[in-house]
């Protein structure tokens, strides 16, 4: 496997992000940002969409709350006493265990935000950049530098284009099911509470979708009497097909690491090792919609995701 250098790839990410200003976006709607010392508030056509929380008081950055166009919050609230399992499942987040032996998913090591920079705002597409350091819990030495270009489309398609760089030390991604780019859905959306999980090929239920690879999976359910959903999408140009960690209790994530773990030992582990200064790029989409997958036009959003990120 050959990895491209951070310095050579980053300008390409910015060019691709800006190039997505196209007819795919909803004309007339505006994606705007309001930044504070610890948050980036995102609105679409004047209505709240999401807030990126990057305070160092938290163990990692995350997006919370996230709302559909009708104003329904699709993720579990922070510190929800009625749904308190797995407290490290916060909104929408990006982390994975077993990086140089550190369980970042479990929050054994901190992921510290270094910078948040708005690139594009005020039009049908919003773009911002985040730089996060994944740090050793004892020494504080960065094990990874994550640089992500986050693109918000007016129809609430979020594209997370990340570059992991072994900026300070070599970085080993070992085999684990605990990762990586995910969301914890609202309690009433859980499959065990009547929610519905369906993949791009029509496969249904968490039992039939867990640990498998699909272009997309959608998790929908009822919140405050309204049907809403969220789809996670795997980019076809990622270095390998990712697998979905989707559970009946509301966890929903995607990761390219964990061939052995996700297949219960049927496949051999396939760890990824980055030498110092090497980088690994991954791209995922997350689409938030009202209605079920058909009413929310998830298949069309998948086409939009692929077309808007084509190289």
Concise description?
By secondary structure, the protein is mainly beta.
Write structural notes for this entry.
By secondary structure, this protein is mainly beta. The chain has a single domain, classed as Distorted Sandwich (Beta-galactosidase, Chain A, domain 5). 11% of the residues lie in helices and 40% in strands. The protein is built from 4 helices and 18 strands. Strand 13 and strand 14 (226-234) form a beta hairpin. The longest helix has 14 residues, at 6-19. The protein starts with 5 loop residues before the first helix and ends with a helix.
Outline the secondary-structure elements.
Elements: H1 6-19, E1 31-35, E2 39-44, E3 47-53, E4 62-66, E5 92-96, E6 111-120, E7 125-135, E8 142-153, E9 157-165, E10 171-173, E11 179-184, E12 196-199, H2 206-209, E13 216-223, E14 226-234, E15 243-246, E16 251-255, H3 259-262, E17 272-274, E18 279-290, H4 298-308
Antiparallel strand pairs: 1-2, 2-3, 3-4, 5-11, 6-7, 7-8, 8-9, 9-18, 10-17, 11-16, 12-13, 13-14, 14-18, 15-16
């Amino acid at each position: 496997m050959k990895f491209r250098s951070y310095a050579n790839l980053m300008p390409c990410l910015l060019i691709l992000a800006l190039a997505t200003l196209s007819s795919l976006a909803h004309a007339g709607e505006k994606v705007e940002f309001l930044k504070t010392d610890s948050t980036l508030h995102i609105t679409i056509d004047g209505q709240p969409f999401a807030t990126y929380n990057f305070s160092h008081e938290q163990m990692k950055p995350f997006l919370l709350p996230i709302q559909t166009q009708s104003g329904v919050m699709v993720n579990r609230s922070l510190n929800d006493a009625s749904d308190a399992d797995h407290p490290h499942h916060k909104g929408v987040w990006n982390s994975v265990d077993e990086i140089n032996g550190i369980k970042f998913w479990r929050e054994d090591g901190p992921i510290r935000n270094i910078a948040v920079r708005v690139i594009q705002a005020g039009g049908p597409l919003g773009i911002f950049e985040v730089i996060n350091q994944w740090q050793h819990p004892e020494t504080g030495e960065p094990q990874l530098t994550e640089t992500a270009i986050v693109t918000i489309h007016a129809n609430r398609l979020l594209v997370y284009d990340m570059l992991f760089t072994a900026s300070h030390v070599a970085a080993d991604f070992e085999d684990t099911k605990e990762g990586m780019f995910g969301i914890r859905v609202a309690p009433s959306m859980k499959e065990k509470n009547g929610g519905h999980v369906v993949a791009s090929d029509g496969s249904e239920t968490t039992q039939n979708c867990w640990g498998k690879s699909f272009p997309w999976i959608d998790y929908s359910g009822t919140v405050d009497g309204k049907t809403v959903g969220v789809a996670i999408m795997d980019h076809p140009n990622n270095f390998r097909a990712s697998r979905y960690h989707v559970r009946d209790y509301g966890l929903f994530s995607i990761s390219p690491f964990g061939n052995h773990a996700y297949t219960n030992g049927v496949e051999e582990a396939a760890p990824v090792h980055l030498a110092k200064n090497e980088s690994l790029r991954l791209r995922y989409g997350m689409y938030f919609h009202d209605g079920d997958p058909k009413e929310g036009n998830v298949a069309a959003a998948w086409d939009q995701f692929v077309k808007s990120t084509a190289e």
